[in-house]
Amino acid sequence: MAGESKIIAYDLITAQPSYGSKFHGGGEYVKAVFEELVNSYQGNGAEIIALYSKDRFLDEWIKELIEEKKVRTVYIDKDTDIPAKIASGEVKCDVFYSAGTIVFDRNKLPSDIVKIGTFHDLRDFEEPVDIYSHLYSEKLIEKVKQIGKYIRRNYLKKRNRERYVKCANGYDKIVCISEHTKCMMETYLPEVKDKIEGVLYTPSKHYIAPVGDSGNLDVRAGYILMISTNRWIKNSYRAIQALDQLYSNNSINTKTILVGGISGDIKSKIKHLEMFEIIPYVDPEQLEYLYSNCGLFVYPTLNEGFGMPPLEAMKYGKTCIIAALCSLPELYAGATYLVNPYSVEEIASHIYMALNAPIDKRIIEDRYNAIVRRQNEDLKKLAGLIVGEE
Q: 338 has which bridge partners?
């Protein structure tokens, strides 16, 4: 350990619900890093201060960890309150760490504080909107907003790039979760490239065992599984179109489970609604059950910084169809079916292919194990970087 015990102000609010999602990939990252940091360094080279909202959901196991390890807590209302607490001296620390995109003026913070941030992606710059994004909204006003965003998409890209630059300028050190994210930042945010420490993979999320059965889910093993289907960025509509075509051709008769729900607009466009089981929400234990019992996992996302869901399915040896863009080929090429996510025809043909020729489970297992080994190694490196370990 370099020097004396460090006081770490840890942004835990980004692990709490955001944009209507109780659980989300960025939040799982924040919780995994917090768990490693607390278990490895609290009272043993570091004092950690957890900053989060007492009025929002936070996993019970995180609260129990905070209590068990006697982690000091500071309550805040929103993530942008954190810099204000530090600048005012209410939170005194040697290091501030955040894995969320917090925009703040670095010059307002004490100059002797080391500010470390993780960048997951540049999603709002890379893919601010899609031609179908309005279909995912239930309210007319939201549909109009999405259509307006599509018309102004070039302006949004420019505006959001500047937002990312401002965010990155708030940090002294930046960690990227994939080579894709690092190269995007170095290419499109050259002003901050010298701050980038390198690539450390997203850690595995805190393990939750699947329920022993489907609980209240009326499903049978062997189904096609899709998740986050209510979010346009996950591109469920094109995949639903592809599946509907396969059902129309009698090419497949495997049912599909859509976790996350779908809008009335999208539902009304489905010809073979009887072949889809629509589930608005499942608990983490039920999601594990769905991963473990599916026959095929389809994830045609339009943007990813890392892309954890395929790994969650591969954990159970499942064949996955995923988008051939962003970080996904970097991680999963050779152990999954890669598709052009904008091509309904290609998604359809690969679903048909995957159902008839699943990927060898030994290949899936080898790739899964290789990624998990790197995740575990990189998690320890990140915790060490945060506390200033040489």
A: 322
